[in-house]
Amino acid sequence: MYKSVYFQDKSVNEIADLFYSIFNTSQDGLYICDKEGNTLLFNTAFLQISGISEDLLYKYNVFELLERNITPNSCAAVTVRTKTPHNTIIDYYNGKKAILTSTPLFDKNNELECVVSNVRDITELNRLQEELEETRQINSKFQEALSKIQNDFQTIHQLVYRSKEMHRIVSLATRFAKNDSPILLLGESGVGKDVVAQYIHNQSDRPGSFIKINCGAIPDHLLESELFGYEKGAFTGASKAKSGLFELAHKGSIFLDEIGDLPYPLQVKLLNVLQEQKIRRLGGTETIEVDMRIIAATNTDLESLVQQKKFRQDLFYRLNVLSITIPPLRERRDDIAALVFYFLEKLQQKYKIKKVIDAQLLEEWLANDWPGNVRELKNMVERAYHMSETNRISTDILPQPAFKNTFRLPSGQSPREDYPISLKEAVNLFEKEFIETMLRKSGTMKECADKLKIDISTLARKKAKLGIK
């Protein structure tokens, strides 16, 4: 073996001190145990990465550290047991993530003498990789959405989504579309019930038209004639017969929006139509058969209206054969960006002027609660597009009230007009409060991480970042 002249004049203690200094200079963690798994040596970097105290390292061997759940895994233990090199990745309880490589060292008799483990901290690298992958996935989804918009741009009612919640809704709607039973769509105003209704009709095998009517937008005395039609002379001004919307929906679907506003007397007639599939025009004597699929929608609590005697219980049960509840936009935030780009693309197609959304504005839109749901978001995108004087749509073109967020601040804190809380601060406050609540409801960190659907190392990092004790 080559021996440097540097060591010729050095004592054993000086050489030992030098190697110990080099050992501790390494940014990688180094850990050495004997053939029984007892700790022999480790450097400062290993303590920082693993978060295990010196006392515990000397008190327990690698198997006991694992058994007592002081460390989530042990690469050295595998090598001691198998006497072969081993590699693994460990998520330490302090939030650090590391790659470990354990190598056996044998004596002159080929007996295991010790195990040397190299520990490389990849926490930051892993975080950057996750962010990169997330960005790639988002970009991929956006590109797919934009591509679909370009290919199917003539489709007036197109479902645009990327959230798991809407994926479940669309799957349900696709299944329901294959039969003729009535469907009741529930959800807040503006969530897209009409779009889902159109989608159900498009996915069905019905060759007829999709007819839409808002039961709350037409005066009571006109609604019946709109739905059932009338014969000539049925009332003053009826100079000729007219087909009603039920007839126009023959072989197709009729969408009764805001069904909760349907006048009580008309509810009886609608029930008869559902049961008999026949109608009679106002002033007429003949019955007309109609083969139509009824899709009703409401943003009110129909069961409450039934209890108040404002909605017929038998009609409610007849309409509620199949029901779909569409969640509000604040509960499916993954759809916001996809919808923004979809609406923006439609505007660019119409006005032939290409514009881009500033990242800060998009971030604020993603954090907004959108009480008006998809309808409000669509109007905001259109407003921002037209108000922007350049090809970049930024936050300075819209008034601040547009970005009101409904999160709950901690007690004693509130945003002020002269010094408004920033979006980042607001998100951090909400995240901290939410994690603290879940920690209180959980017995262990592992239980809390499972409830939050994140791994324990991510939870530990967030605790440290947000200053959670």
Could you please describe the fold and organization of this structure?
This protein is an alpha/beta fold and 469 residues long. It has helices at 12-25, 44-50, 54-59, 62-67, 75-82, 123-151, 164-176, 193-203, 220-228, 245-248, 264-276, 302-307, 313-319, 334-351, 359-367, 373-387, 423-440, 445-452, 456-466, and strands at 29-34, 39-42, 86-91, 97-106, 112-121, 183-186, 210-214, 229-230, 242-243, 253-257, 278-279, 288-289, 293-298, 322-325, 356-357, 392-393. It has a five-stranded antiparallel beta sheet, sandwiched between helices. A five-stranded parallel beta sheet has the order 7-10-13-6-14. Strands 8-9 form a two-stranded antiparallel sheet. Strand 4 and strand 5 form a beta hairpin. Helix 6 packs across helix 14. Mean pLDDT is 84; it is low at 149-157 and 401-419.
Short recap of the structure:
The chain is an alpha/beta fold and 469 residues long. It has helices at residues 12-25, 44-50, 54-59, 62-67, 75-82, 123-151, 164-176, 193-203, 220-228, 245-248, 264-276, 302-307, 313-319, 334-351, 359-367, 373-387, 423-440, 445-452, 456-466, and strands at 29-34, 39-42, 86-91, 97-106, 112-121, 183-186, 210-214, 229-230, 242-243, 253-257, 278-279, 288-289, 293-298, 322-325, 356-357, 392-393. Helices cover 45% and strands 15% of the residues.
